[in-house]
Design a protein that fits this description.
Blueprint: E1 6-13, E2 17-26, E3 29-39, H1 49-62, E4 69-74, E5 80-85, H2 91-105, E6 113-117, E7 128-135, H3 136-148, E8 152-158, H4 159-166, E9 174-180, E10 183-190, E11 193-200, H5 212-232, E12 243-248, H6 254-257, E13 267-270, H7 293-302, H8 324-366, H9 368-385, H10 395-404, E14 411-418, E15 423-430, H11 433-445, E16 449-459, E17 467-475, H12 477-480
């Protein structure tokens, strides 16, 4: 139990602003003390952390913030993520498996990323883990920004995931939708843990205009996006969503928001605000608190690092790397041992290898007649091949796949693997999801292709607007013939 007062600052990074919320921790009580929005005239860039940190420090001083420790939250659009299945394993073995899967999943040098993964496997049936990464350059810039603002960074984590994890709810599985003026994010809660986070490309209406028509149209569009994500999301037995939880940070009409979950067959629950996070605000507080809920959740949860779903400042993979000085000492010891061992074993090895060379020379001399006969046979076979059909059996599947792709472009294949039984697995990129789904329908409509499956469909990178995809199918023409 915490017996002393502690103030922690939560900083939620957004496209054109930083949302700051300071909370006070006293015993088991958490209360909000100050909030502020630090706006930027242009899109927030982390390329100059010193300048951003200076602007942040001046704003915090002007608004009377006193906390010196901060938890930094980042938006989902800065993330790379992938869900992968892992067998039960101890933390060390699991970290090694996650690193191997990250090398396969992310088309980026791992040295350029900071990678983490959410806590543990939920059940024997559900063995999927969310592997999540951020650019190492971005993580270092955020650390430098905090230091330039006079703050000690405690953690770096996705804002919406921390907010979803902090919500007090009895729902084991749910879709959680968080709305902000510039973006929307979806977090999937599965069997009591967070299994996915998505940035949604939904232009949100301005609630201050009070235009119910535009709000209603936006809600219909949001329902369509949620339905598409629900259809593409991998399903786990017993982990179907029980409800859609909506955190409205822009002030849309509750009666309109309450209908978002209807097209996907889910009831909609609207979050009440800070009380759902266990955070109290002074009764005389006049400023709206919901827009700062993410920053407040970061501050409240940051004092308990084990409660963070992921932390790019203390990654579970990074933490297992020994310090550089220890690595150098270990390398030096290993080099000395190798030199001593070589000095002892080398003379005996030379004598043994000299005898092996003489034996091999004798075998080669005895095999010379067989080599001459084999070379003559090879020449005869090469001559006969010129009179036979040498068309590879793999050309027909490739031709059919090429015909299934749109002539106008917009999609391209980056890797393709074909087995002996003509089962094909491919991955690639496209300009948007509709192009991928159109190609998928075209492949399914061809009689020569069967067992067509879409493995995944996601955004290709942190800033890239392209869509990455992967699918498999079986070429059937030869089996029919």
């Amino acid at each position: 139990m915490r017996l002393y007062r502690q103030r922690i600052l939560g900083l939620a990074m957004e496209e054109h602003a930083i949302l700051a919320a300071e909370v006070r921790l006293l015993g088991s009580k958490t209360s909000l003390t100050r909030t502020a929005e630090v706006p930027f005239s242009e899109a927030l860039q982390t390329d100059d952390p010193q300048q951003v940190g200076q602007i942040l420090r001046d704003s915090l001083r002007h608004n009377g913030f006193s906390a010196t420790e901060a938890v930094i939250g980042i938006p989902a659009r800065w993330l790379l993520s992938a869900r992968r299945a892992f067998p039960p394993a101890n933390p060390s073995a699991l970290a090694s498996m996650v690193r191997i899967e990250a090398e396969r999943s992310f088309a980026t040098d791992l040295d350029d990323l900071v990678i983490d993964y959410e806590h543990a496997l939920a059940t024997q049936e559900d063995r999927d883990l969310l592997v999540i990464a951020i650019s190492r350059r971005t993580a270092e810039s955020l650390r430098a920004m905090a230091q330039a603002a006079g703050l000690r960074p405690l953690a770096i984590a996705p804002t919406s995931m921390v907010l979803a994890g902090a919500l007090r709810t009895d729902l084991l599985s749910a879709l959680m939708l968080f709305l902000r003026p510039t973006h929307a994010e979806l977090v999937i809660r599965s069997l009591g843990r967070l299994s996915d986070v998505r940035h949604l490309s939904l232009p949100l209406p301005a609630a201050s205009r009070g235009d119910r028509t535009s709000q209603d149209g936006w809600c219909r569009a949001a329902s369509g996006v949620l339905a598409q994500l629900a259809a593409l999301a991998p399903s786990t037995k017993g982990a179907e969503p029980e409800a859609l939880v909506v955190w409205d940070g822009i002030g849309l009409a509750p009666e309109i928001l309450g209908r978002i979950g209807e097209p996907i067959g889910l009831r909609t629950e609207l979050s009440a605000g800070l009380p759902d996070l266990g955070i109290a605000a002074p009764s005389e507080w006049e400023r709206p608190t919901k827009p700062f809920a993410g920053a407040a959740a970061l501050a409240a949860t940051g004092s308990r690092r084990d409660d963070l779903p992921v932390d790019f400042l203390h990654s579970r993979l990074e933490a297992r790397r020994p310090p550089r000085s220890r690595r150098r000492i270990a390398w030096a010891i290993a080099a000395v041992i190798a030199v001593v061992t070589a000095a002892i074993a080398l003379p005996a090895q030379w004598r043994a290898e000299e005898g092996e060379v003489l034996t091999l020379q004798q075998q080669l001399e005895s095999m010379e007649p067989d080599l001459v006969a084999a070379q003559s046979l090879a020449e005869q076979v090469a001559l006969a091949r010129d009179w036979t059909d040498r068309r590879p059996r793999f050309l027909n599947p490739l031709r059919e796949l090429t015909l299934a792709l749109p002539a106008e472009g917009g999609i391209w294949i980056t890797s393709l693997a074909m087995k002996e039984d003509l089962r094909v697995a491919l991955s690639g990129k496209a300009k948007d999801e509709q192009t991928v789904l159109g190609v998928l329908d075209s492949i399914r409509s061809r009689p020569t292709f069967g067992d067509v499956k879409l493995l995944y469909l996601r955004e290709a990178g942190i800033t890239d607007r392209e869509i990455a995809f992967s699918l498999t199918f079986h070429y059937l023409e030869e089996s029919k013939g």
